[in-house]
Amino acid sequence: MPLFDTHTHLFDGRFRKDLSEVIARAQAAGLECVVCLGIDRESSLESARIAQSYPLVVAAVGIQPNSAAEAKAGDWDEIVRLAESEPRVAAIGETGLDRYWDKTPFALQEDYFARHIELARRLGKPFVIHCREAEADVVKVLRQEFEKHGRIRAVMHSFSGDLATAQACLEMGLYISFAGMVTYPTAQNLRDVAKEVPLDRLLVETDCPYLAPQAVRGKRNEPAFVSHTAALLAAVKGVPITTLEESTTHNARKLFGV
Length: 258
Ligand code: NI
Description:
- The protein has helices at residues 19-28, 41-53, 75-85, 106-123, 135-149, 163-171, 188-196, 226-237, 241-256, and strands spanning 3-8, 31-37, 57-61, 89-98, 127-132, 154-156, 175-178, 202-204.
- It is an alpha/beta fold.
- It has one domain: Alpha-Beta Barrel (TIM Barrel).
- It has an eight-stranded parallel beta sheet with strand order 1-2-3-4-5-6-7-8.
- Helix 5 (135-149) links the parallel strand 5 and strand 6.
- The longest helix is centred in the middle third of the chain and has 18 residues, at 106-123.
- Nickel (II) ion (NI) binds at residues 7, 9, 37, 94, 207.
């Protein structure tokens, strides 16, 4: 049962005391890889450190749209340095656009999103997209990129958009990743979208420590719990759990190059 958690924040204070046990449980649950993503300079440095300490983990570095307003002079340069020089940095992000939280002026979010995309393209690395209530804006940016540079190597993380958004992203080459939210009783709309995502473009993630799947809802989320989301998606797609686990792991390996 191979599993690959494509989105975690293991630098979070909630993992400070027992990270090695969290990693051991992930391994015991069949995980082959976990991506730890920074949201700003400090957490990107920490993600790279965690990836150096644990062979199971690879890092992504970036400044998340909600953190962009607080970025100081030199923070972006540090992200670029990490992306260029740290062998354990597999991806750029998380990046994207967010109209739900009003933390960063939208034009500044767009500026940072463009920088991440350009950096990913220049280094030949994938990028990880956070999109909250900004689907049309994200698709617009991706279309411009797609028209200029072709197929896009990226993932829509913790997907929460509609089917039209998913299809637009799939057409441009992106992967669609579902987090624990898709297991919640009220999220039938997300399950309807997941049903339509081809098996070869589907990914799973925990987004831990947030969004624990229904079976463990209320607990601190951790990579081992990605199995609950994988099982739910197998049921939605009408395929055996092993098929779902093998294809999502294969897809993630391909996207992240690990
Ligand atoms: Ni995240």
